[in-house]
């Protein structure tokens, strides 16, 4: 069986690039704590929008989706699932809420991982929910010519229970000794290589990422969707996952590509949190001023729906009126039309 002893491995990850990201994240963590204590009421809207974005993005990575209005109502438990996709979305919502509300009371062991997986499928009555895989699974990919090939061969079904037990044991033994961020990302990489379930491994890995981050005090994922950042760079996500799984069974894999990528995702989440909160809590900015500032500081074009996501407390009417005024005075340009309309700040000559 694979050696999961993180005590021997985590120091190998302390490259200059990774150390720089660790330092940044720890600095952001301290700043975020101060923001949260001072602006609890203003941040409630960010929590709700992050839940919607996280539920949408994590399921979208796996090809699971529904209409935007249905998604929001499902996440807010205002409607019941109509089909398989919506049932899986509702299950993700419930597990995400469980982690948000109870992360301090969820031990990292096989039984609790199984319980979370069971709840992921509770709206489907799925017999696979809450049990480890019953047959070997293989991760396949298609090449440019459409030929299928094996990308990775996970742990065999008969080894799964023991592998997850060893994984959790190694994680718990290394807590307090290894850097918690590095430990989290190594755990998630190994979880994905074990691939313990017949279905739902990717979504479970992202839920467990949030759980482990929250338990270590890195709660940015409550306010900014980490899953959405991953979904926006999923090609890179799959590339680094493959790179870090080479020679995994021989205990010779390199965690660095995956860990470096995931730390970059966390840095981006903290940066987005910081920029949103500064706008949200600046008493000198009107709502129209905030929209103007967001567009001016945004790299490239931005849609009205993106502006609404970034400013959940500002109404559709206010955003539309502000866009019309900015167009009228020539500060922004309109690109495209209809549902594909985007806006970009007009560069000064």
TrEMBL record:
Keyword Repeat: no
Active site: 195
Binding site for ATP: 199-206, 237-238, 251
Cross-referenced InterPro entries: Fido, Fido-like_dom_sf, Fido_containing, WH-like_DNA-bd_sf
Residues of the Fido domain: 108-264
Origin superkingdom: Bacteria
Pfam family, one: Fic
Keyword terms, alphabetized: ATP-binding, Nucleotide-binding
Keyword Acyltransferase: no
A GO molecular function held by the record: ATP binding
Name assigned to this protein: Cell filamentation protein Fic
Protein species of origin: Dorea longicatena
